[in-house]
Amino acid sequence: MSVPNPQQPELPPLSATDFRIYNQLADKMEYFHTMLRHSWDIQWTAATSGRRPQGMSIRQFIAEGLRFASHLETHHAIEEQHIFPHLARKMPEFRVGRGKNNAELLRQHKLIHAGLDGFREYLERCLSGEEDLQMDVLRGKMETWKDVLWTHLDQEVRTLGAENMRRYWAKEEIGGIPF
């Protein structure tokens, strides 16, 4: 739900058709985020229960974790290189700045990747045989960035939602946003 901004006038309700047009980026982002959440949940459930999913070997489990890391890194790279710069033309939520002037969603990316790097490096060491996979260690590698990841996934979809998008973009412009 959007919070009223006294600097912006109250907008009339959207028709169902206009809502679908303005909400299409949020819908697409939610699709990708659902896949990322599912992959995270496989790793997190095992790390917190101490047991891999039934029928999944250690190598398969580690490979699944590395796939998750790769998918998240690729997803963020596409956002930062193609989608966010376009959105930043009109939306401060996506503007690059220095330090605290960097958009919150971009600051979240940095925090996520700080934890993701440790997660990926640990799984790579386990895959190579340098370390044995220990679920409590994996959990520790995930706990440091769990909250910021889940906050980010939800916040990004809300930011791309119809009520926010229509404050910045004409209906005809939505289709021209790279996604």
Detailed description of the structure:
The protein is mostly helical and 179 residues long. The protein has one domain (24-176). Helix content is 68%, strand content 0%. The chain has helices spanning 16-49, 58-87, 104-128, 135-159, 162-168. The longest helix is centred in the first third of the chain and has 34 residues, at 16-49. The two termini are 23 Å apart.
Major sheet: none
The poorly predicted ranges are none
**DSSP, total strands:** 0
Structural class: mainly alpha
Terminus-to-terminus distance: 23 Å
Please report the number of helical segments.
5
Tell me the radius of gyration: 19 Å
General shape: elongated
Percent of sequence in beta strands:
under 5%
What is the helix content? 55-70%
Mean pLDDT: 93
- SSE order in H/E notation? HHHHH
Number of domains: 1
Oligomeric form: single chain
List keywords for this structure.
single chain, 179 residues, mainly alpha, 5 helices, Dimeric_xanthone_biosynth, Hemerythrin-like, Hemerythrin-like domain-containing protein
Structure at a glance:
By secondary structure, the chain is mainly alpha-helical. The protein is built from 5 helices and no strands.
